[in-house]
């Protein structure tokens, strides 16, 4: 293959303008890490440009990278299916999470949310707050993300959902408080602001970190997923 592929980053989409702004800031960091790479923005629903509109503006090979933190309908079925129908030969990477880079970014966000910019105390309890999923694979990915964060923090990290069946974030927060935690911190396992993050903020934690957002570790992770999937195109161009 002579032409290097375009990285098409596909986020979920939200009506909150801050969500799209966060995605664009993240993609600016991706471009800064690899300036010669063509990077395009798209959304699976709600926001513009849609996946279809973005693909119509791209010639040549494409690698779609779902800006999603777990497997589920959008990552496994919706995005790959729609993209392949419009652009035969396109390949779709696996979602961003779970991954240690996301855990590192969450710790940075928690540290920034705490007074004085200090890391969580040993007497603090941490709960990972996620949107949730009806797909067992998505639930397994959130569980894995909580385990990775627990290893980084060297303490138990349960998880709770704000938009799906399963452990309820507000109940997990209250349980940690009953167990005697000085403070309960909700680590937002979301990429960008929107309705789900508002629900995390309202779940009763003493502190809720901001979404992972435009973080250098996440930008590198986007490129890692692109590189993994690019190999399936048979592209022999070396990676910078």
Quaternary structure type:
single chain
Pattern of helices and strands? EHEHEHEHEHEHEHEH
Number of strands: 8
Number of helices: 8
Q: What's the overall geometry? A: elongated
Low-pLDDT sequence parts: 235-240
Give, in spatial order, the strands making up the sheet with the most strands: 2-1-3-4
Distance linking N and C termini: 17 Å
Main beta sheet, described? 4 strands, parallel
**Helicity level:** 40-55%
**Beta-strand percentage range:** 15-25%
Radius of gyration: 18 Å
Which class best fits the helix and strand makeup?
alpha/beta
Average pLDDT reading: 93
Report on the architecture of this protein:
There is one protein chain. The protein has eight helices and eight strands, in the order βαβαβαβαβαβαβαβα. It has helices at residues 17-33, 51-56, 73-86, 100-113, 136-153, 169-178, 195-201, 216-230, and strands at 6-11, 39-43, 62-66, 91-92, 124-130, 159-161, 183-188, 207-208. Helix 3 links the parallel strand 3 (62-66) and strand 4 (91-92). Helix 4 packs across helix 5 and helix 4 packs antiparallel against helix 8 (216-230). It is elongated and about 60 Å long.
